[in-house]
Design brief:
This protein has 262 residues and is of the alpha+beta class. It has a single domain, classed as Alpha carbonic anhydrase (Carbonic Anhydrase II), CATH 3.10.200.10. Helices cover 16% and strands 27% of the residues. The chain contains 4 helices and 13 strands. The strands form 2 sheets. Strands 1, 2, 3, 4, 5, 8, 9, 10, 11, 12 and 13 form an 11-stranded mixed sheet that branches. It has a two-stranded antiparallel ribbon with strand order 6-7. The longest helix is centred in the N-terminal third of the chain and has 19 residues. The two termini are 35 Å apart. The structure holds zinc ion. Zinc ion binds next to strand 5.
Amino acid sequence: MKINKFVFISVAIIMMLSGTLIHAGPPWTHAEQATWGAIEDTTQTEVPKMYPYATCAIGKNQSPVDLAAATIKQSKDQNRLGVWYEVDDAPVFFNNGSEVVVNTSLDYQGQLVVGDEVFQLIQFHFHSPSEHVLGPTRFPAELHYVHVRDDGRIIVVAAAVVEGERNETMQTILDNTPSTPNQKNENSGISINPMALLPPNYHRPDAWSMAGSLTTPPCTENVQWYFLQEVVTISTEQLEQLRAFYFNDYREVQDLNGRSLI
Ligand SMILES: [Zn+2]
């Protein structure tokens, strides 16, 4: 039973990685984000398939947002996260053409637990500077942990990244990510624990939550966001190294349309 479930999740993960999250359809850049919704898939002849990124333009729950502009609803117990990542013996270091990404291996067991629901960690990546803002504050970078459940729902856990102490796991990622876009470093023999980017013993973090979307095409909605209240620190040199891959790979803030933080 456990194996069946695992296979099911793996198939979902593969679909996510090969389809929705990474490369579905026509190319796009952050520079043209104002018109992502109008990008045509020339292999298609019918609406809506001709406009695979239409949600970027017409979605009402788009991310990122200005968190300071949202009203805060009383927090609830089910909002509490359980972060149970563990060591991945075969991570894939991936320069996906717009971000530095680490894909977890297919049999990776690291999980996010929300209430009694379990979401698998499938990848994590960075944007610099941050995508979410707090009023006038845009952070030096933002870390996104992407999780998927076997029913296809997605949770992204986001952390603001600031300059401070050097992070050894960050260095491992930076040193092993290919400098060439769309290249993967598989079978590096290097193990990493995604937990190690976070503060020590950070299994029950305090977080704000909001409904949102992927911040890159196809801007899929039905993504639940959790914003960690503590920041991640990397050194100034590491921030520079991250920015040598990509800088300004962020999406502008989107309308809240009445959404609040929980
Ligand atoms: Zn992201």
